[in-house]
Design brief:
By secondary structure, the chain is mainly β. The protein contains 1 helix and 10 strands. It has one domain: Beta Barrel (Lipocalin). The chain starts with a helix and ends with a strand.
Length: 147
């Protein structure tokens, strides 16, 4: 499940005001579903908060009988129309771009490639992504609504 969380953390990349993102602040909440090899799948809850160029996503899920939660924060560095994705140590881990209401990015974390597309609607945020690393792969979709 920890590997799946790396997929989920990519979610965090939705919006930053100066990079031309569709939303400069707000909180979105909803659910996500992931699928992996061999028919593995699962569901989780997610809340993504956007404030200026900082995005934080919090996840709640079950691992076996245990309830778990994780939070991930990223900062966006503007450079219209592209942006850099920085981790908590201000290290560039990826890059992306936006066009109108859609944003997409690619990042790499210790040999694990993460790609995600975010689509902003009126009071909604949808995310579609994939993650691949040595010996595993997973895809996901999240549907969130403004709080």
């Amino acid at each position: 499940m920890k590997k799946v969380l790396w997929v989920l953390m990519s979610l965090v990349l939705a919006t930053a005001a100066r990079a031309g993102f569709p939303v400069s602040s707000g909180t979105f909440a909803g659910t996500g579903q992931w699928k992996g090899p061999g028919g593995s799948s699962g569901e989780y809850s997610v809340e993504t908060s956007v404030k200026d160029q900082v995005l934080t996503s919090s996840y709640k899920y079950r691992q076996g009988n245990e309830a778990r939660s994780e939070s991930v924060t990223f900062r966006m560095a503007s450079g219209e129309p592209f942006f850099d994705l920085l981790d908590e140590h201000d290290k560039v881990v990826g890059s992306g771009y936006c066009y109108e209401t859609d944003c997409s990015y690619r990042a790499e974390f210790s040999g694990i490639a993460v790609e995600e597309t975010l689509r902003f609607g009126k009071g909604t945020l949808e995310k579609l992504g994939a993650k691949k690393g040595p010996g595993f792969s997973v895809v996901w979709k999240e549907v969130l609504a403004a709080k």
